[in-house]
Every structure is written in structure tokens, then in C-alpha cells.
Design goal:
Blueprint lengths: L1 H16 L2 E4 L2 E4 L1 E4 L2 E13 L2 E10 L6 H6 L4 E7 L6 H15 L8 H9 L10 E7 L3 E6 L2 E7 L1 H12 L6 H7 L5
Antiparallel strand pairs: 1-2, 3-4, 4-5, 5-6, 6-7, 7-8, 8-9
Length: 188
């Protein structure tokens, strides 16, 4: 009987430690950890183009947020995970969309960020496949660490860069309103 109880407890703990949620065709974890800080899923959504899912986006934070401004202004560790859902999302297309996203988010005023944006776009030089995922992790007071499928591929310094990057999805004119609403827990 003790073995069954111990096994049941172990199963529950293991399940809780690897809990996931489906976001469209993608599966994302409820919790992620970067530099020893545990972040919890704030919300997630799916980008569709002509009814085809292109990617899913999830926001992870230390505190629960429903206000985009508070996320953008917060100087605390947080992360955005992007999961590729379509073969149409190539690395070239991602670079182009990120460039446009920065321009739109900053209303064309990217001069102070241009060198860092170029460095960031270089991180997306390798080919992408369905189910590839990217973590764009803001480390409090430092900058953005970028991961592809769990492997770090680069670092861009500055809270101002985090602000511009996160504003692509959480700004007044987001890349996708469904993802913005989902990230802020407003869809559903």
C-alpha cells in the first residue's frame, strides 16, 4: 500500500512539474525557468492567416497581468514563447516580420535600437521547422536572451530593447490582436 501511495504522489508531482496546455496546434508548458526564476503562463494565443495557424505565442511572467502597459513597463524577468505551426513561417519571413514589427511598435523611431535590432535579426538566420520554438526571455535589469528549441542563440542588452520587442505583440497596434488578447488572458 505504501508503494502505491508513494507512486501516486510521485506521479502527481511529476505531472504538475510538466503540466502543459494546447494553444492551437502547439503545446506550451504552464511554467518555464530561466536563470533560476520560475515564470508562469500569463496567457497565450494563435496567429492565423487565411484560417491557417502560422504560430502560437505565449507570455510567461512572475505576476499575473491583464494590462499591456504594465507588462511593457515592468522591470522583472518575463518571457515570450513563439511556436512555429506552419512551414510557411521561414527564417527569412520571421526576419522580415520582426523588422516590420519593430518599425510598427516604435512608429518608425528605431534609430537608438537599429544596431541591436540587426543583431537580433541575425539570430533567426537558420532554417525553421514546424514545432520549432523560440523563447525571448527578458532577464531583469539586463536584456533579452533568445533561445531556439531550448538552446541559447544570442543576447541583446537593454530594457529599452525588451520594451520594443514585447511591444510587437503587446503594443497599441500589435502584430496579432488574438495573440495579444490571449497573452493577457482576455480571449476565452
Amino acid at each position: 500500500m505504501k508503494k502505491i501511495i508513494t507512486l501516486s504522489i510521485l506521479l502527481v508531482v511529476t505531472t504538475m512539474g510538466t503540466a502543459q496546455i494546447r494553444v492551437g496546434d502547439a503545446v506550451v508548458p504552464y511554467k518555464v525557468t530561466f536563470e533560476g526564476e520560475e515564470l508562469t503562463l500569463n496567457g497565450a494565443g494563435v496567429r492565423k492567416v487565411l484560417r491557417v495557424e502560422t504560430y502560437s505565442g505565449a507570455l510567461y511572467t512572475m505576476n499575473k497581468y491583464t494590462d499591456d502597459r504594465k507588462v511593457l513597463d515592468a522591470d522583472e524577468s518575463m518571457s515570450i514563447r513563439l511556436v512555429i505551426n506552419s512551414k510557411k513561417v521561414t527564417n527569412k519571413r520571421m526576419q522580415k516580420v520582426f523588422r516590420k514589427g519593430f518599425d510598427d511598435a516604435m512608429f518608425g523611431n528605431t534609430q537608438s535600437l537599429d544596431a541591436r535590432i540587426d543583431k537580433f535579426l541575425e539570430l533567426f538566420g537558420s532554417s525553421t521547422q514546424i514545432n520549432d520554438f523560440f523563447d525571448l526571455v527578458y532577464i531583469k535589469g539586463k536584456g533579452i536572451r533568445t533561445f531556439k528549441n531550448g538552446e541559447e542563440i544570442g543576447y541583446i542588452e537593454g530594457r529599452d530593447f525588451k520594451y520594443a520587442l514585447f511591444k510587437i505583440w503587446l503594443g497599441d497596434e500589435p502584430a496579432c490582436k488574438l495573440i495579444k488578447g490571449g497573452m493577457l488572458g482576455q480571449n476565452g
